[in-house]
Amino acid sequence: MNHEEWGIIYTMRPDTRKIIQLINYFALQSPFKEIGKLHILKYVYLADRYHLRKYGRLITDDTYYAMQYGPVASATKEIIEFKRKDAVEYAQHLLQPTDANMVRSIAPVEYKVFSETDREAIRAAQARSMRIHDPVAYTHRFPEWKKHVSRLTNKNSRVRMDVLDFFDKAPEDVEFCVVDPELLSLNKEFFSEHLALFG
Description:
disordered N terminus, three-stranded antiparallel sheet, 6 strands, single chain, alpha+beta
């Protein structure tokens, strides 16, 4: 299926409960149980990308934009900033903003919201993140972000990303979710069909 020829516009409904628990998880893993917005956005992107490539679906069902500092999950960003109305009440029971760019965990993670494969992807993203010295430079090397770089002219620029581009292979020293090419192709086809039907 050539999604560009079909002219399909993908719009998914983000799973705000999972997103909040994902933020909560990464905050709890960080020193003082708090984490910065930039790091959360990188971790969520890496977890989603891993899960999509290996299992054919996103964890968060978020919408991604290319911005100057890398890929940004739109609903995740709004939740971290406590600007998403349909998530604020639930988020307030688990998270507390400590300043404009930091959030602290104030409650345990509800692991039941995550599947086993979700947890695998989250752990893989966390393990990779621990080895990255510059998360911005790292995510700038993924092809799905690089294709938009010429349009990102200032810090407020943003370009809607096609999540099907997450199936494109990154450079070998960057790619951390290597999947058998046949499985990768099947997952891409499955996800493309899912979006065409339900997106």
